[in-house]
Design a protein that fits this description.
Number of strands: 0
Largest sheet: none
Strand content: under 5%
Protein name: Phosphate transporter
Number of domains: 1
Family: Belongs to the inorganic phosphate transporter (PiT) (TC 2.A.20) family.
Distance between the termini: 132 Å
GO molecular function: phosphate transmembrane transporter activity
Shape: globular
Subcellular location: Membrane
Structural class: mainly alpha
Membrane topology: Multi-pass membrane protein
Radius of gyration: 27 Å
Order of helices and strands: HHHHHHHHHHHHHH
Length: 412
């Protein structure tokens, strides 16, 4: 076992806390569509995802090596820098979870690492080529590729299934959706758990506990896998609701197409060592599947809020991490102050979340999204269809009164 200092132990514990938040923040990536279409019960879905996340953590270390060896210069990085990076990532994860936005835990971690590194060692300590080729380009390409693949797969499934028995086809797609959801969970463990492995390994190198260019030790792989699995089991119900019902309404065919497309993209990127956002991939595939069905829609107001969160993730986490690194520079009391701030902020976010509890009992209960300004304006000036009467139309001219019949005459 490596020799540990107190600060190094704090960093490792904080990294595992981040891994836990990554788990419940990203549960929606694997199981939101499966839950929303009724293929699996909510608690069964998150339990299955947790187990496969743990298994996936042992399949590769390529992404971990990208974080620990490629993104920043290992030399001159202190454990306090890693701690500050994790503070920025954790707080961004919790803030976006509170409002139910599926942002990227991966980019939060990398943004925190970049911000803390720049504050400590300058811009030159960040490897810009790695940042562009293995982080930024995949961030843009992944949702587009996954979305197009899901849209084409959805259209193909509906075309091939026209003559199939409706109930039998739906049952088959639900079965396929469960399998594809398991594949996404496995891919998530392969990609996201490794990011925590990489950050812990980087901290161990910075603290002199392991040699530079070392692969993650076995205990790091095991602890990271367990932390993300535990977080996954707790379930990020707020984000599951947004991903499963807030973006679009999915049928089993669409859910199967979305998850299969996302899993393919994630596994391919893990093999290549790309630090890909599983959130971007799954969100893109869900929107693609929504557009792939005839008459399907995407709720663009929700999607727009999500895109804004994506754009803010790297700079927001970097800014918080840079400020945290500045405070830790004052010594042990500065590090303690940052730790107290992290705990207090996390507790405050948790308390606010209790005002509206979302869990497995109400995760699929979503009210209709109110119309936007443009939709309401168009509805206001559009004439009603021919043959319809609006509810607020009242008669202003009284109906003619029927003339009375002349009195009958009698002859004498």
């Amino acid at each position: 076992m490596e020799s540990f200092s107190l600060i190094l132990a704090i960093v490792v514990i904080t990294a595992l806390v981040f891994d836990f938040t990554n788990g419940f923040h990203d549960t929606a990536n694997a199981m939101a569509t499966t839950i929303s279409t009724g293929a699996l019960k909510p608690k069964v879905a998150v339990a299955m995802s947790a187990v496969l996340n743990l298994v996936g953590a042992f399949l590769s270390v390529e992404v971990a090596n990208t974080i620990s060896k490629g993104l920043v210069d290992e030399t001159g990085i202190r454990p306090e820098v890693i701690f500050a990076a994790l503070v920025g990532a954790i707080l961004w994860n919790l803030a976006t979870w509170l409002v139910g936005l599926p942002s990227s835990s991966s980019h939060a971690l990398m943004g925190g690492l970049i911000g803390a590194t720049i504050a400590s060692a300058g811009v030159g300590a960040v490897h810009g080529d790695v940042l562009v080729t293995k982080v930024l380009i995949p961030a843009i390409a992944a949702p587009i590729v996954a979305g197009l693949a899901a849209m084409l797969a959805t259209r193909l499934s509906y075309t091939l299934g026209k003559k199939a028995d409706g109930k039998a086809a739906a049952k088959g797609y639900r079965t396929g959706q469960i399998a594809s959801a398991g594949l996404v969970s496995l891919a998530h463990g392969t990609n996201d758990a490794q990011k925590t492995m990489g950050i812990i390994t980087l901290a161990l190198v910075a603290g002199g506990a392991v040699a530079p260019d070392s692969d993650p030790p076995l205990w790091v792989i095991l602890s990271a896998g367990l932390a993300i699995a535990l977080g996954t089991y707790f379930g990020g119900w707020r984000i599951i609701r947004t991903m499963g019902k807030g973006l679009t309404d999915l049928e089993p065919q669409q859910g199967f197409a979305a998850q299969t497309s996302a899993a393919t993209v994630i596994l391919a990127s893990s093999h290549l060592g790309f630090s890909l956002s599983t959130t971007h991939s799954v969100s893109g595939s869900v929107m693609g599947a929504g557009l792939g069905r005839k008459g399907g829609v995407v709720r663009w107001s929700t999607a727009t809020r999500m895109f804004v969160a994506w754009g803010l993730t790297l700079p927001a986490a970097a800014l918080v991490a840079a400020l945290a690194e500045y405070v830790t520079g004052f010594g042990n009391w500065g590090t303690a102050l940052v730790a107290v701030f992290l705990v207090a902020s996390s507790a405050a976010i948790w308390k606010i979340s209790r005002r509206e509890i979302i869990d497995h009992t109400n995760v699929v209960d979503v009210s209709e999204e109110p119309p936007g300004v443009v939709t309401a304006a168009i509805a206001a000036v559009t004439p009603p269809p021919v043959g319809t009467v609006t509810e607020d139309l009242t008669a202003t001219i009284s109906a003619p009164v029927a003339e009375s019949a002349p009195p009958a005459t009698t002859s004498v």
